Amino acid sequence: MSKVLIITHTADNEAVTSVIQHIKALGGESVRFDVDRYPLACRLTTQYSGGRWQLWVEDEQDAHSLSDITAVWYRRSYNIGKGLENVLDKEFLPSSIGEVRRTLFGMLEGLPCFQLERYSVYRRLDSKEEQLRIAADCGLEIPATCITNSPARLKAFMEATGRPIVAKMQSSFAIYREGREHVVFTSEINDSHLEQLQQLAYCPMTFQEKLPKALELRVTVVGKEIFAFSIDSQQLPDAQTDWRKEGAALVEDWRPYELPEKVKAGLLQMMDIYGLNYGAIDLVLTPEGKYYFLEVNAAGEFFWLDKLCGYAISRHLAAVLLQQAERRE
């Protein structure tokens, strides 16, 4: 029987449950590893003796051998080592967290089985610059882009582009102010930002031409299958620059979308280059009919789109993990 190790966390959404159910329905077995329970509530052991490797994950209720794992779905690693701050002195906490992370990710990297995806591939995808270069090489349109911490270079870019500019960070994060979480979204550059331009020297940012939008597209690629959906983000003022600001309000407005064959071919070629079997890809369709690639996220969400297509995404993801559907080895 095929056996899938799922790396996630206790607060993850229903996408994990859906994939687990489909793995079972297709005749496979799954082991869920919630990283926020490691190391306080569960134990992970790797052992080499007698000429063979053995691996176990255990908690108070169960013990699972990982020696016969046939596939890994690395979905999330949020809050790894949660709770250690309550039992360790501050001077020891960074070292302990570092060892916990290196132990888990080192174990995963060494597993000789199919992985969707390897941790090292996720780290490679942190480079949004490489993503844009590869997308362009695959024949996809990309926006005019400037990644810099130089105010002078940014001014020159803005003048040369001659169009409105948006700013974005290369990583997803939030700023906590007075106990409240403020997610950093893509934002249009305005006069007040220009007055603070010298602060750019302290932190590089990505700047791109603001594309006019007929539609925004979320394209989920699983193995060799493409699931594309569109949203008219311009119907709500706060969603016009970044639809995620009104994600909850727009959740029922997404529609299935058929991409042109040329765009499909470019996206699949890009997935081939990275060796990706899962990717959540953001595109913009302009009023002139041009498709622009923005980015691919190997851990991007799909649960709200899964509901719109009868859970076909999670079902196909389970089939890829069990080698019952075509995949990139």
Automatic annotation (TrEMBL):
Record-linked InterPro entries: ATP-grasp (IPR011761), MvdD-like_ATPgrasp (IPR048936)
Pfam families hit by this protein: ATPgraspMvdD
PROSITE patterns: ATP_GRASP
Gene3D superfamilies, per the entry: ATP-grasp fold, B domain (3.30.470.20)
Tree of life domain: Bacteria
Record bears the keyword Secreted: no
ATP-grasp domain sequence ranges: 132-322
Sorted UniProt keywords: ATP-binding, Nucleotide-binding
Keyword Flavoprotein: no
Protein name per its UniProtKB record: ATP-grasp domain-containing protein
Lineage: Bacteria, Pseudomonadati, Bacteroidota, Chitinophagia, Chitinophagales
